[in-house]
Amino acid sequence: MSYLWAFLVGGLICAIGQVLIDYTKLTPARILVSFVVAGVLLGGAGLYGPLADFAGAGASVPLTGFGYLLSKGVREAVDEKGFLGVFTGGLTACAGGVAAAMALALIMAALFRPKAKD
After folding, report:
1. With a cut of 70, which residues of the chain have pLDDT below it?
2. Contact 23, 9 (CB under 8 A)
3. Looking at the 3D structure of the chain, how many domains does it have?
4. 8 Å CB contact between 35 and 17
């Protein structure tokens, strides 16, 4: 049943993004940034945590999950280190994912060379 909820919640988040692309004049970059900001705001308000617990990867994999991870990291770092945690918490919380994305991008760039389309 958890797979079904992950699929439905993740699909709903993606469907919201598709509706924004189709029916607004927002660029994809602005929509992506809006999703991250929405995740931060919902995480800061304590609303995204229960959704992430309920839907699992359906809520943590989309960009709203990245925003939630940032807000969660800041909250934990502020509790532990005080005001300095505002600056370090988000980076510490998402460091593993960002490092993995950068390393895999470097490997793919080394393995595959872009070619001009004819």
Report:
1. 118
2. no
3. 1
4. yes
Domain that holds residue 81: 2-111
Q: What gap in Å lies between CA 62 and CA 109, rounded to an integer?
A: 24
Per-residue confidence (pLDDT) for residue 117, from 0 to 100: 73
SS3 82: helix
pLDDT at 93: 87
Work out the angle at residue 49's Cα, subtended by the Cα atoms of residues 48 and 51, and round it to the nearest 5 degrees: 65
> For residue 116, is it within any domain?
no
Which uninterrupted H or E stretch holds 53?
helix 48-55
- Taking the model in full, what pTM does it have? 0.78
The residues, ordered by sequence, that sit 6+ positions from 92 with a Cβ below 8 Å of its Cβ are 73, 77
